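User: Quick sanity check before I run a bigger batch. Here is a single chain. Can you write out its predicted 3D structure?
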Amino acid sequence: MERQHTFATLLVSFLVGALACGACGEGKRRTLVLGVPTTVEDSGLLDALLPEFERAHPQYRLRYVSAGSGELLSLGARGDLDVLLSHSRRAEEEFMAAGHGVMRRRVMENDFVIVGPADDPARVGGMTHAAAALTRIGAVDALFLSRGDDSGTHRKELELRSTAGLAAGGAGYRELGQGMGEVLRAASDLGAYTLCDRATYLNLRETLDLEVLLEGDPRLLNVYHVIVVAGGREAEAAHALAIWLTSEAGRRAIAAYGTERFDRPLFRPWVEAEAVR
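Assistant: Done. Predicted structure follows.
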């Protein structure tokens, strides 16, 4: 399992690897290029999940690129990924409707939370309505860090703001254009609020000076799908990964992650994993 941080690096590495493998025994091992949201990578799930897939399917080698869901869907539309994970429902539906995907399956879910400094200057702790909490944070010009990267998390934030009739902006509003881990670390350093997925927060919690201040709003459900990209280089391997993720073995691996360290799973596998369009 190898990570490529940018598309340019990914493409060059893929081509070089393909040429090298053509002249060695590794040529029998197919390279599958997977796109994953930064929330999945920063949660630590990949380190537990992908090796399990490679053990179950030793004929495939996995490389992955980590980015926001919006960027991953753009890469997929250009055919630069074989398969991807995303947590941006409307964007995924548009992707499928445009014919860029051939299979979409619900894989797992967790939830978003609003985190911030323990002294909570906007007094959002204990609130139950996320959109109202964002309104209060903006009203007192408290510092709020946004992903600002068209990721699933960023789109969820904008959805909540739309619900509240609240525009993105204001004296305390900052868009970072960074992944979830980077935004959480910046929020910790600056004493700021942010919206994040619970799994990434828990995985990094010991390094952060942030508290969960709002949770439990049904609007904060965070659902992940796997999408097999139309015209991908490794369609057979992509289908194998999508099917494995939603199989009993995949669900078991997802459900197990986090239980040893946090006494709870960080993701809930979706049991009724039927393909949807």
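The longest helix spans residues 7-21.

User: Great, the batch can go ahead then.
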